[in-house]
Amino acid sequence: MAVQNKIGPYYSNTYEFVDELRNYLKIAKICRVRDEPSNLPPVTDCFGENYQFVKVNSNGDSVNLSDIKTGSSLGMKAQDNNNNWTSDNIAITTPDGAHIILSYNTNCAEKTENDGLSCIAGIVDINGDNKPNIFGDDVY
Question: Cα(64)–Cα(54) distance, rounded to whole angstroms?
Answer without folding.
Answer: 9
